[in-house]
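In response to reviewer comment 3 from the previous cycle, which asked for concrete evidence that the modeling workflow produces usable outputs, we include below a single protein chain processed end to end. The sequence was submitted unchanged, and the resulting structure tokens are shown without manual editing.
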Amino acid sequence: MEYRFLGHSGFKVPALGFGAGTFGGQGPLFSAWGNTDIAAARRIVDICLDAGVSLFDTADVYSSGASEEILGAALKGRRQRAIVSTKLALRVGEGPNDVGASRHHLIEGVHAALRRLDTDHIDILQLHSFDAQTPVEQVLRTLDQLVREGKLRYLGVSNFSGWQLMKSLAASDRLGLERYVANQTYYSLIGRDYEWELMPLGQDQGVGALVWSPLGWGRLTGKIRRGQPLPQGSRLHETAGFAPPVADEHLYRVIDALEEVAAETGKTVPQIAINWLLQRPTVASVLIGARDESQLQQNLGALGWQLSAEQMVRLDAASRVTPAYPYYPYWNGQFSERSPVAV
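The workflow returned the following structure tokens.
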């Protein structure tokens, strides 16, 4: 296993982590992702730890907390071998304070996550969304205190815009508080918006990317092909409404390029898609998911080799789209070579 620094934290994480969204299987979204029970989760954790995949990511909203509970049970007796990452800030109840990043919700949410995970600390806590109603100074002071109490080790965000993350980092620097070092972000060959602003920000500020949905919400599994109907067993039948949109022609252009490279390398389409991400700037870890052992073993095959420079260029060209203003001039070469472009 390759280990990489998580931003400028000095802390190393494996290049592949495991996303436990398949644990639990409760609710309309997560039941379509998977319904891994404790026994199956223990087996998945066994395989991950044996392969060096020691980072396990979950969230309080995954199957209404069942994902955290199952992960905690699966890690019992070997918690010290694992890096546990979870998230909070999305709505978890009907109460007026059961959402957001207020001092109340952060403290209550962390304590609840610790109970479900059956642990005394969380290695990486990420805010699942930006709370515009709570001053960032209050958010950061609360998180800083939780770090000082030993309940949290490192801090991160997820689904933040560039200005939201930069405002928070500037406040941390101004007040001498713990900084965010992780950005759990959507990034794939069919979803490259991360490159426009968040990637250059991560390079400049020392924030490492923990990539979720590296296979584009199940579209890059190798089962979807041009001119063929959506496979009967695809989870997209149930979850397409939750997925980031992508135009059909763009998707098929990327899939065509992936299949070409797969034929050249003898690797699978998912392995090609994940390996491409592992060679991108700021990427600390790519979170893979699996409903069963065979999917997990296939995704683990994305490590231990590299796409050639020519193959990377070909995949870049097939997946490139014109960024929104004000980013597109940089990608079209209209500004100087000193423009803040990270790709």
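Strands lie at 3-5, 12-14, 16-19, 55-57, 83-88, 122-127, 152-158, 180-186, 208-212, 283-288. We consider this sufficient to address the reviewer's concern, and the full set will be provided in the supplementary archive.
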